[in-house]
């Protein structure tokens, strides 16, 4: 039986994507070859890469607006340093909303000064700071749109003349935004876009070329752009499965339609968290994430019973991040509303039993 998969990443992907992806391992495009054994320079794969790059821009509404899409390796964590390598001349502004921002800041400091414009570390990253000031002498502003570990999400982004860079690893393709307000968007595929092994990077090309340092080839966005994301062997299978997921999204109404579903799922679960006296939300209400809902048991004595109940119900991956504890329900695009109903039913069953 298929589990109700709440894993935070790698995570649930659509069943039809799994079916098509497994077929391609046996015989890709009726070629008599597996996708795992063909050259990345073959026409079949060059077409995959091109469609993946184009479709990511199409879904974000960024076609013909000076953006380029790349599928790179090294995870979102590699982007923490690549961004600074390519864009940080003297000083950059970072908003610190959690563990991932903190890691991004650490890497940027190898290349220049970092101004932390605001931080929610004082309250265990339970909220998103607002009303901060971005200095005029910085090279760019960096933020994390969704904080996977704490379950907070930025609902608004600051307007600034400086390039805005956003780590969207855990909410890419989940909601409509004016994506042209960002100059660089990046996302490790394994949260909401595909399997682990590739990272989507969408860059407005005109922000590149201003740093004076020499940049090693693999770190240089311009080289990857010039080579159409094929400077070296890309993560062929991860890019292919990401493409299948993007096609699935497009065929199901794109970001607009999935956003409505995501809102429904989040509302269903958060209402239960708020109504059920046995549970408590972790993040500030106004900053709650639609993707990752974090919550705790008011009385830890019920932990064993609750854990048994949700495991019996076929739920997987509900434990909170090791640094936060409690529970985390990751409700990425491919998670059906029915799975959320199963969790909510288990939570009310616990209330009846307790
Ligand atoms: C998971 C995650 C990362 C790290 O991604 P890797 O691909 O493992 O390097 C970075 N930022 C956010 C917001 C994440 O959720």
Overview of this protein structure:
By secondary structure, the chain is an alpha/beta fold. The chain is built from nine helices and 14 strands. β6 (146-147) and β7 form a beta hairpin. α1 (15-26) packs across α6, α3 runs parallel beside α4 and α8 (303-312) runs antiparallel to α9. It is globular and about 65 Å long. Bound molecules: pyridoxal-5'-phosphate.
Short description:
Its EC number is 2.6.1.52. With 354 residues, the chain is of the alpha/beta class. It contains 9 helices and 14 strands.
User: What is the CA-based Rg, rounded?
Assistant: 21 Å
CATH architecture of the largest domain: 3-Layer(aba) Sandwich
Q: What spatial form do the alpha-carbon principal axes imply?
A: globular
Q: Roughly how many Å apart are the termini?
A: 29 Å
Specify the oligomeric state: single chain
Counted beta strands: 14
Strand content: 15-25%
Subunit structure: Homodimer.
Binding site for pyridoxal 5'-phosphate: 76-77, 100, 148, 167, 190, 232-233
Function: Catalyzes the reversible conversion of 3-phosphohydroxypyruvate to phosphoserine and of 3-hydroxy-2-oxo-4-phosphonooxybutanoate to phosphohydroxythreonine.
Subcellular location: Cytoplasm
